[in-house]
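User: Here's a protein and a ligand (adenosine-5'-triphosphate). What would the complex look like?
Assistant: Let me lay out the input and then the predicted complex.
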Amino acid sequence: MFFIKLRDLFKSYGPVMALNGLNLEVPKGSLYGLLGPNGAGKSTALRIICTLLSPDSGHVEVGGHNVLFEEKETRRRLGYVAQDVAIDKILTGRELLELQGDLYHLDKKYKRRRIEELIERLDMHEWIDRRCGSFSGGMKRRLDLSSGLLHEPELLILDEPTVGLDIESRSVIWGLLKELRNKETTILLSSHYLEEVDELADEMAIIDKGKVIASGKPDDLKKELGGDRVTLRVREFSDEVEAESVKKLIKNINGVSNVVVNQTQGYSLNFLVQSNDVISNLSGHLSKENFEVFALSHSRPSLDDVYLQATGKTLMDAELELAGKRDFKLENKKSMR
Ligand SMILES: Nc1ncnc2c1ncn2[C@@H]1O[C@H](COP(=O)(O)OP(=O)(O)OP(=O)(O)O)[C@@H](O)[C@H]1O
């Protein structure tokens, strides 16, 4: 049974098409990861599900309710932890949670109990009575997460929950998310950290340019690639021309597939091999064209390889490319309106 269903979702900001026919189905009680580079459209999709933004067209359903017509019912059932939250600087963490509880119209006794539970669970007692203005990024995130969980929502939506956080805060947040999933809360989170999605998600979707281009269980997606991943360098620092020549040669070797030049890693080559024999014979093939093996590593496929297979580039290359095209100043201005 699916708890969230998105069908043919389109959304543009002026000339920028953020969602380009997005389809997604999130099973009830699962932890679902949306993986994609900055600018892929993840936040836009999450904000639409949370009723904070309207799509240009498409269907959005949460727990059997049409989100576009039943905003109030949807909001009651979900907790949303945004990417950037402007937390009041003067209130203490506890006062902020009290205020949030009042906004949810929680019963006084229930609210106090929930606040205590969350302070305990997210290990916040040492600093929760300090003013929020003095909090670190990790403390703010834990406070945000507590706010989103006060009313025990059936659905928790998190936009990049651990971006830029210290290891301790990240592990506290991961621990809580795993626990909630075991208690049947449906969790949808966006991330551009491969290891976060790999570690947490039961199912995932890769989003690229406003569309889902691959989805399934992380392990199944890795297995579908069907071979081991090899990274090869023919010299310490290659250039594009050399890398493309090596690519041409390797592509024609039997048992090799998905050859990609990895620009951000010194023009190394990434590819999949069907058996170890291919690796043993590699230097023979290369020497025919006067190339040699400078460095070679070999591993089981990772989510980065899944991403590479689906998009033709690594997640890091995609981020660099998109970062060059974005006008963050303008976006900030528009989203404050
Ligand atoms: N308020 C806005 N005004 C103009 N363009 C926007 C606005 N918000 C997002 N965009 C553009 O829409 C596209 C999708 O952005 P979105 O924030 O949804 O992506 P994302 O995958 O969540 O990335 P990030 O993690 O950086 O937020 C990007 O090209 C972005 O530049």
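Summary: The chain has two domains: 2-221, 227-300.
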